[in-house]
């Protein structure tokens, strides 16, 4: 795709049989022909990939210094008692609440456009056709086992 712009003229005319026909032309009168071409881009590899330089080894690790023991803990000073508690001041009553303003009515909903039916391929709903095969096989096995049971019972 490119960003080329072309100005074309589209003329729509009734053909007298209830159909519309359109003719498309350039401003200079030439007919318009559309062609789509797609070429798969070829990836271009890097011409000369640069190798990583030689990695430098880490210098010799230094051992951690010897740990020093913690000094002896010091005891906490004597606790001080809390001062006498002060009573809370008397609560003040809340002012009278103001009523909410009158609610505004919701605007009438706009009617939705009627749903259009998609005219696709008519098909039956998927109701588990794959399980019907297993049901048929199970029925055949059940019938055969019943037949074997009755034959052995009579013998």
TrEMBL record:
Transmembrane feature ranges: 133-151
Q: Which organism is it from?
A: Streptococcus oralis
Pro residues: compositionally biased ranges: 42-114
Does the record bear tRNA processing in its keywords? no
Instruction: Report residue spans for region: Disordered.
Output: 37-126
Q: Which Pfam families match?
A: FctA, Gram_pos_anchor
Q: What is this protein called?
A: Cell wall anchor protein
**By its UniProt entry, which InterPro entries does this protein fall under?**
LPXTG_anchor, Strep_pil_isopept_link, Strep_pil_link_sf
The protein's UniProt keywords, in alphabetical order, are:
Cell wall, Membrane, Peptidoglycan-anchor, Secreted, Signal, Transmembrane, Transmembrane helix
């Amino acid at each position: 795709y490119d960003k080329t712009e072309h100005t074309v003229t589209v003329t729509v005319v009734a053909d007298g049989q209830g159909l519309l026909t359109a003719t498309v032309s350039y401003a200079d009168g030439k007919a318009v022909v559309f062609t789509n071409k797609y070429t798969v881009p070829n990836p271009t590899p890097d011409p000369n990939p640069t190798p990583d330089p030689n990695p430098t080894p880490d210098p010799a690790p230094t051992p951690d210094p010897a740990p020093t023991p913690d000094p002896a803990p010091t005891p906490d000073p004597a606790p001080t008692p809390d001062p006498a508690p002060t009573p809370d001041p008397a609560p003040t009553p809340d002012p009278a609440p103001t009523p909410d303003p009158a609610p505004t009515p919701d605007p009438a909903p706009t009617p939705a456009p009627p749903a259009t039916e998609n005219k696709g391929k008519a098909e039956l709903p998927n109701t588990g056709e794959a399980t019907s095969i297993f049901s048929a096989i199970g029925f055949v096995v059940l019938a055969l086992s019943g037949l074997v049971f009755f034959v052995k019972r009579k013998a």
